[in-house]
Amino acid sequence: MEIKLVKWSEDLKGDLINLCNKADRSFLSGRMPYPYTEEAADWWLGMVSEHDGKDGLFRAIVVDGKVAGNISVEQKADVYCRDGEIGYLLLTDFWSKGIMTVAVRQICEAAFAELDIIRITGLVYAPNTASQRVLERNGFVKEGLQKNAVYKDGRIYDLCLYGKIK
Ligand SMILES: CC(C)(COP(=O)(O)OP(=O)(O)OC[C@H]1O[C@@H](n2cnc3c(N)ncnc32)[C@H](O)[C@@H]1OP(=O)(O)O)[C@@H](O)C(=O)NCCC(=O)NCCS
Fold first, then answer.
1. pLDDT, tens digit, for every residue of 51-67?
2. What is the pTM (predicted TM-score) of this model?
């Protein structure tokens, strides 16, 4: 299985729309619009071309030539500016094959090499054990737990704080 991270570009717009409409959003923030329209994709592609390589890395996860997911590290602002927050999602057909474990390794290497950051933060809802394993397999350390920090779809979740130091 070949797992590559590819910069989002106009020619992947259809894949981006498909991915964001089909993604399991149970443990994602409400930031990603639904339904995910062409306008939403145009906004995302514009944002990527403005920020990628400067204060963020935004990549499609391509598995054996097919777009399977999205992964990013976004540099924070103000006094948190040497920290980057990681985010990722994978289409359900590709789950439990070790793909995200590899993708996180690749983006952390690239982010520490290309961005002016000294740590990467991961924020994971407590029931999302798969995502926590992905981070732990990549050397992230659980630094804390924010009780009742997330309210989503009528449910309240604790939020796990993970960190990886350069
Ligand atoms: C969370 C997610 C990224 C995991 O990606 P993945 O490629 O399936 O994960 P991997 O196959 O690399 O598995 C990593 C670990 O999680 C475990 N795992 C995988 N699916 C699991 C599940 N449904 N429940 C519990 N553990 C699971 C694997 O066994 C593996 O652990 P191990 O190394 O001890 O064997 C994927 O399920 C996803 O995209 N979910 C929806 C979006 C999301 O939650 N994003 C993260 C927000 S913080």
1. 999 999 999 999 999 99
2. 0.96
